[in-house]
Amino acid sequence: MSDNISDTNPRFTIVIPTKDRADYLYHTLRTCSAQDYDNLVVIVSDDGSTDHTKDIVMDAASRDARIRYMKNGMAPGMRDNFEFALNQAERGFVMALGSDDGIMPGGIAGMRNVLRDTGLELLSWASPLFVYAGVRDPRGQLMLYHPKKDRLIESRQFLARQAQHLNYLGDVESPMTYVKGVASTRLVRQVQARSADGRFYRCPTPDGYSGIVLAGEVERFAFSSIPFAIYGLSPTSQGLNYLTSDEAAKKNSDSFFKSVDAVPMHRELAGQPYSPLITLMTVDYLLTARDLPGWGGAFPPIDFKRVIVSCIAELAHGLYSEERLLREMQILKMVADHHGLGSYFEGTLRRSRRRKAKQPFAGSGINLRLILLDAVDYGICDIFDASVAASYLQPFYANLMPRNLVKIFRRSLEYFLTSSGRGSPFPKLGREEQR
Question: How far apart are CA 2 and CA 121, in angstroms?
């Protein structure tokens, strides 16, 4: 067992790198203050906000001493802001939230319990997602994953799956410490020690890389069927900004790209600037982690024909504007040329067709992975409301799974059979009682 979890109540640090998202950050901090765990520190690292972010944090800190406001000089950019915030974490465990995400009720205590019981230093879960009203539809939506079982994940199997499927974001078991995982600070410092400049975050974006690089530091990690944090998708989310044609969002997205372009992707991706294609990001994470001296992870060689096919499939889903589409096609062409696959890229592109952009599914529904709930119907207005609702609805939803429904039906039937029917007759009154 690691020294980090030998204590009854180890330190947990939540880092929240933020910029100009005060109205959503307010509700994120509400989920943090609701935690019934004393040895918790919440570090909000401000990347040069021009709104009332500082006021929101200082007000929350005046009511909860576990919340701290920090500012790292003159707007270092998202990647450096994540690194700065991470470096503030003291010995114990650490995770990151975006400033529109949240912690589930009892989430920190729940993480502590699983880590203590398993004796492991890395833990993941399948985070629900709350989509704020006005992002996809006027009412908002809460999404819950179909329940999974508690289990231990072999890191090499996880990494091999990443190399095959090339979809870090679609893997619910990924132990990335952004919203859906928590790691010991010992593992984090171990990764930093492998880097010449002492950095943890080596790629343009910090989320998925953390899961891949940390998985390579351990033989196995824990996966919890209970989610301990929840994603929020607000109008300020970067991925959403890249897909929209709204001018204000486009300006925000362009500013983001300018800040991350200084960090090119891996040389096997032709040193191209950052791409939001999930396939390319996954490859970048894998190859960057692999190159760290002494990194313990392993995965099969990347099949770049598969990379090309997967990227074109992403581009075909109809969400990108013409301008964005041409940018990603140019990046992918350079990657293909770098591997002598230019003709393969052009042939695959000719045979492919773009799909019509689908309207997001609104309201309540269900698919093979998720149950979707109309936010207005459930009185959910923000990430705090969503975290509370999800904490009640997720266990209820788990009980509706077929294996549990069978148990419920059997117990109900047994109760009915044992409690129905005529019982014994009333006793007869004796002569004395009849008087």
Answer: 7
